Amino acid sequence: MAVAISNYVGLSAVMFFIGVAGVLLRRNPLVMLMSIELMFNSANLLFIAFARAWVANAGQIFAFLIITVAAAEAAIGLAIVVATFRDEKNVDVDQVRLLKG
Amino acid sequence: MMATHHVMGVTGAYPMLVTLWLLPLAGAVLCWAFGPQLRGLAGWLASGAIAASFVLTVASWASGTQSAGGALGAHQYLFSWMPGFDFGLLLDPLSLLWTLIITGVGFLIHFYSIGYMHGDRAFARFFAYMNFFVFAMLTLVLSDNFAGLLVGWGLVGLASYFLIGFWFERRTAVAAARKAFVINVAGDVGIMFAIFLIVANVHSTAFGDAFAASGTLSSGLLFAICVALFIGAAAKSAQIPLHTWLPDAMEGPTPVSALIHAATMVTAGVYLIARCAPLWSANSDAQLLVGTIGGLTALVGAILGCVQWDIKRILAYSTMSQIGYMIMGVGVGAYEGGVAHFFTHAFFKAQLFLGAGIIIHNLANEQDVRRMGGLIKRMPFAFVAILTGVLSICGTPGFSGFFSKDRVIYGALQHGHPWLYAVGILTAGITAYYMFRLLFITFWGEYRGSVDPSDLGIRHPELSGVVDPDAGAGHAKEPADRAHHAEHAPAWIMSVPVGILIVPTVLIGWLMFGGDTSPWNGFFASSFPSAALATPAISELATSGVVLLLVIGGFGIAWWRYGTREAAANAVERLRNESVRMPAILTHLFYIDAAIDLICVRTSQLLGQFFGRLVDPLVVDGTVREAAFGARWLGVLVQSLETGLVRAYALVLALGAACFIAYYALAVAR
Asked: What is the CATH number of the domain that holds A82?
C-alpha cells in the first residue's frame, strides 16, 4: 500500500529546514556543507516522490542530475575549506572575513 | 528630390571643361611636391598650367558650345554626392567671363611673378599657392550648384590666407592673414545658412532648381536667403562693414594683391549676386539693401583712399571702392553694368598693382609714396603703366573704365535709385582725386628716398599710437632676405605682362559701346532677368558729362595740391604737413576696426571669459566633480552591508527565499 504523498512532502520540508538551520547556526564549514547536502536531498526526495505519484520519470532523472551537481559542489566546497585552512590555520566561518567590503 | 535638374538652359557640352578646371590643381600639386627639385622651373610650370587652362577656355568659345536654341555654354555632370544632389561644371556666359579673367589675367600675373618672386626662398611654394588659388576660384565660378560654390568659396579663402601670410616670418603678415580668414569664414557661414534655407524649401542645391522656385518662395524667405548670401558676398568682396581685412591683405606679395585682392577673388561677391540674379530681381528689399551697401562702400573706400600713404593700401581702398560700384550695379539690377565693371576693373587694377610692383621691386621694397617722387625719370615704363591704369579707373572717355562705370552709375538711376546714382557720381570725382594724388606724389617732383622720414611726417607706426603693431597695419616692408638678392630676374619678365595688360586697360571698354546693340549686351542677352526700366529725366550722355566734370574737378584738386611746379618744389614740407595734420577720424579709418573690435572681438572675449571662468569650472567641471563625489558617498554607504560574514549572507538568502515562499503560499491560498 502506498504512502500518502503528503508524508513525503512533510519529511522533505523538515529535512530542508534542518539544513537551513544547520547552515545558519553552525560555524564549522564541514557541518555547513553537510547541511547543504541535506537541503539537496530534501529536494531529491520531493522529485522522486512526485515522479512516482504522477508516474513522470523525468523527476527521477532530475534527482540523478542533482546528485551529480551536489558532488561537484561538495568537491569545490571542500577545496575552499582546505585552501582556507592552509592560509588561515582556522576554519571558523565567522573568523574568515575575506569578503568584507 | 526633383526628378529633373535645371541646368540653366544649357544643353551644350565641352569635353575639355574638366581638364581646364583641374590643370591648375595639377600644377599646384606638382609645385608643392617637387618644389626643391623644380627650383626656378616651378614658376614656368605654374604659368604653363594656367596658360593651358586659358587656351582651353578660349577654345571652348569656338568649339560649338553654342547649343541650338539655348544659351552659349556647356554643362558637364561629374558625380552625385547624394541622390538628387549632383555636382557638375557649368560654363555659361557669366562663368565663362570669370574663367577668362581668372585664367587670362591670372596667367599674366603668374608670369610677372616669375620676375617679382625671383630669389625668394619659397619660390615653388608661392606658385603652388597661386595655382591652388586659381583652381579654387575656378571651382567657385564653374560649379553648377550652391554646395560646390561654397566649396570653392571656402578654398579661395584658404588660398588667400596662405598667400597673405606668405611671408610668415612677419607678425603683421600672419595677423593680416588670420584677420582675412576669420572675416571670410564669417561670410562662408552666411552662405551656408542660405544653402540651408534653399535646401529646406527647394530640396535641391542646384542653381537652376533654386532659381526656378524663386517665384514661389515667400518674399520674407527670399529676403532672408538674399541677406545670408550677401553676408558671404560682403565678406569676400570687402563691403562695409566687413571690408577691414582687404587693406591689411596687402601684406602679401604684390602679385597676390593684383590677382586675388584686386582682379578675381574679391569680385566673387559680384559673381554670386550676378549668378543669383533671379533671386535678387524677385525681391526689391534685397536689391535696395545690397545697392545701398555697395554705394556706401564705394564712397567710404574712395574717401579712405585719399588719406593713405602706402601705395598698395591706396590701391586696396580703390579696389574696395570699385567693388562697391560693382556690388551697387548688380545689387540694383544693372547686372550687365556691374559685371562689365568687374571685367574692366580686372584689367586696369591688375595693371595698377603690377605697375606698383615694378616700383616696389626697384626701390628695394619701399611702399610709402612719401619716400618716392620723381620716378617719371627713373621708371618711365612704370609711369606709362600706372598712367593708363589711372586714366581708365577715373573713367576718362575712351578708356575702358569709362564705359563700365557710367553703365553702373546710370543703371542705378534707370532702376530707380537716384541717391545711389548721386553717390556714384560723387565717388567718381573722389576717385579721380586720389588716383591722381597717387600719380603726382609718386612720379612728380624730386626723388625723396634720401630725405629723413621724419621730415616727411612718417612716424614709426608703433610710436605713433595710430597702428597696433600686431594689427597688420603699418608700413609693410617685404622681408630683408629678398630685398638684396644678388641677381635680378631680367626686367622684361615683369614688363611684358604689364605691356600686354595696357591694351585691354585702354581698349576693352569698346566692347560695351553702343548700349543694347553692343557685343557686351549680346553676349549676356539671355543671362539676366530683365526689368522694366524707368526712362529718367537725365540722359546717359548728360550723366557722362556730369561724371566727367567731377573727374576733371578731382583731377584739378589733385593737380593743385600735388601736381603744380610750386607743389613739387615744396613737396617735402607739404607732405609733412598733410601727414601731421590729418584728422584722427581719417587716420583711424572711421573707427570701423575699433567698432568691430568692440562689438565682436571684445564681446566674444567677455563671453569666453564668462564661460571659461564661471561656467566651465563651476557648472561643467562641477557636475562631473559632484557626480564622482556622490558615487563615492553611495559606495561608503553600501560598504557597511558587506560584512564578510558568510552566515549573514546565508541569512539574507534564507529570508529572501522565505519571503518568496510566503508570497506564493498566500497567493495560492487566496
From this structure: 1.10.287.3510
